[in-house]
């Protein structure tokens, strides 16, 4: 132990302690790094290719696949057209009542039996099954009433041109809604009925994402320059419909799972060395961050590279960004960003970068099960590289966090790991 | 039910549905509102008084109370002085070893038996008990080794002038630390030993707070104008030592418990009508937000008004801002903001504003117990108004969220509730 102590003591004398530690592989990899200009040149080619291919090949839609009649998706619509739709449905109800037939809403089913994974689109959409919600029926009168009330509340919100949360909506009529799950569920119904996104209804989720780097955009008419947002970054706005005029000279978007890695990248101003936009939802992606990523990808046509933990959870997070959650499948085209590249930390990186044994964590049985479940998912099966990586993870039963790279020095992530990944175009 | 339906239907026809709902008290209160200019004039007086009193009366310190020898607090120190202290402790150890007496660290005890609530300061501080951590003892050799290692790592971080997270620190030597709780605990020890804050060690927590409104500051030399941060606001930087040059023409700081209320205030640009700085940690306050609030309060000398849920949890959040958490009592002077005013939502507001019964929630037994526990806390006892409010809460067994005000219209919070509160100087 006294020997160990002495070694530790020595390490403290160097700036990072790296030299004195068994990290020769780390140094070897550092030496493989080419000049930034060389790395940037190849990056520019990739970026240009991505932009030209996305400008020539248009994104597939349901109608390209002749599915638009049998499947249902919502889209962003402006306030005035949503207001018109609501008014039309009120008039229809009034007419129906006056003609003596009472009234009823046709509500698309959002149950899993009505969901469909479309491989060509790489996302889940809704089939076209609808159910009737008549007012004059004991079993549906309550839901029909709630539906009418939510329609009227959304109408009021849109007229005022403000945004509210689901919680706000619930509190406007607790007596009727009784429980927030009831108003939330009907709100999703209303989205589907009107064929518009929840953002178009001006009902927003709270935001927790942040963005920093080579991006300029407008948030409610304030110009935001994300290279001038210090280390804290800019909080991603909850209301995507007030975000506009995205401009960027970035070569890629770096999607980061965690806060700590985001902070490292922001403090080191990684985007100055490799022009990029860095974004994180700090864990499980929220709707605002997913909308924002989708918007960036669509408008700026940049490749998206993901930096997540090497564990099933990291991959699940990627799947939410890419394929959406089953819960909101009717809105999958607006919420999902297909074609995200898995940059790291990948199971194969653990050996390639010789991450020390003690920085790897044993996978629990539950982790292994989650990994095996992922191997059955369509979005994984489609990508051979991902399958191999996942198989490695499940076989070795080892996982690791992005932070594990700190064992080679606090800035190894920004100084060696990421530059080398980019130089070698090492993503899947 | 059909009667109800019709009523709901009618409500939808007006913009907010307010007119047709039993909210006459809400209207009555709206009519009590004076002109903004009148409200602002009285606000300016309060603000000026706060600023002149805080410039004449200096903040009490431990030495004013003759407690500096028997109590211990840490302070912000610049990198070079912390580096010197670490080098000095290394030299001391070397000298001690060379003289044949081995070496040992003197570590202040952070246990609750060594903590003291100082009413004059209104916060918890550490007493002066220290314990010895000799290297040449089986029971302390591991902790002494970890202490030396953490000192050397912090030294490396400070030399590079970067910031890292506790997790980064842990991963630099998983073999030695074994579990993050071990390196975290020693990090706090090192803070106390060196008499500096954790921020001074450049070990930062991830941030989750956001700020918007009449504040300009520098985040790592980027100028941030918080009136131009759209609705999303500016993410509060994790590293407070890179925050500087705060400027503001605000009349108060509005501390908001929750995200949804923050969004309402930001979207309505409340700070344009009543010059203020709006800040939230989105629930339980994180260290970065607490440091930021303290910094604003100290440098700008503005009153802090708090908008929290009317439940024991809301008050607990206030207590963390005001008195700190017991866990970090050695750093209480930097983390705590005394003299926060409880603006709302207060238990007495529920009747005063006639919040509908169905928007109030019954308190669970656990809630009631938490409320009763709070009545025993010194920071509550010191404020008669708070005691009364808490007693009302416990007696009525009712709680309510800020969002409950939405029952009078989505913008009732910004258009009536807050302006009236400010006009009536209704805070405790």
UniProtKB/TrEMBL annotation, chains A, B:
Enzyme kind, highest EC tier: isomerase
Keyword terms of this UniProt record: DNA-binding, Isomerase, Magnesium, Metal-binding, Nucleotide-binding, Nucleus, Topoisomerase
Record domain Spo11/DNA topoisomerase VI subunit A N-terminal: where: 142-203
Claim: Iron is one of the keywords in the record: no
Pfam families in the cross-refs: TOP6A-Spo11_Toprim, Topo_VI_alpha, TP6A_N
Cofactor requirements of the protein: Mg(2+)
Primary localization: nucleus
UniProt-recorded Gene Ontology molecular function terms: ATP binding; DNA binding; DNA topoisomerase type II (double strand cut, ATP-hydrolyzing) activity; magnesium ion binding
Domain of life: Eukaryota
Binding site for Mg(2+): 257, 309
Subunit organization: Homodimer. Heterotetramer of two TOP6A and two TOP6B subunits.
PANTHER family cross-referenced by the UniProt entry: DNA TOPOISOMERASE 6 SUBUNIT A, MEIOTIC RECOMBINATION PROTEIN SPO11
Similarity comment: family membership: Belongs to the TOP6A family.
Protein name (database record): DNA topoisomerase 6 subunit A
Lineage, opening ranks: Eukaryota, Viridiplantae, Streptophyta, Embryophyta, Tracheophyta
